[in-house]
Amino acid sequence: LLGTEPIAPESMVLQMASVRLPVSDTGLSARLFDDYRVQIPVSHDGTLLRISVAPYTHRADVDRLLEALATEMAGANAKRS
């Protein structure tokens, strides 16, 4: 979805993982919460997104995150163009 290189091999990804963002975006965490009600941390420099899936997380929650990220990344790409 993000088109970035993995930080760790897939065999090491379980309930929590960090992924690189294609561009630094320090406001992404706030927008994800304000616009989509998705609470997910982004590193202080805006380069990493930390995904953490708890036992109470539903597939619909993950789908909402993926849809929100796709929308936000499309908006970021449009701004760069």
pLDDT under 50 segments (min length 5)?
Answer: none
Number of E-state strands: 2
Distance between the termini: 19 Å
Q: For the CA atoms, what is the radius of gyration?
A: 13 Å
The chain-level mean pLDDT equals 88
| Secondary-structure element pattern, one letter each | EHEH
Total helices: the number is 2
Largest sheet entry: 2 strands, antiparallel
Q: State the oligomer.
A: single chain
The residue fraction in helices comes out at 25-40%
Main sheet: strand order:
1-2
How much strand content do the residues show?
Answer: 5-15%
Specify the structural class: alpha+beta
Q: What shape does the CA trace take?
A: globular
What features would you describe in this structure?
With 81 residues, the protein is α+β, with helices and mostly antiparallel strands. 38% of the residues lie in helices and 12% in strands. It has helices at 28-36, 59-80, and strands at residues 16-20, 48-52. Strands 1-2 form a two-stranded antiparallel ribbon. The longest helix has 22 residues, at 59-80. 9% of the residues are buried. The mean pLDDT is 88.
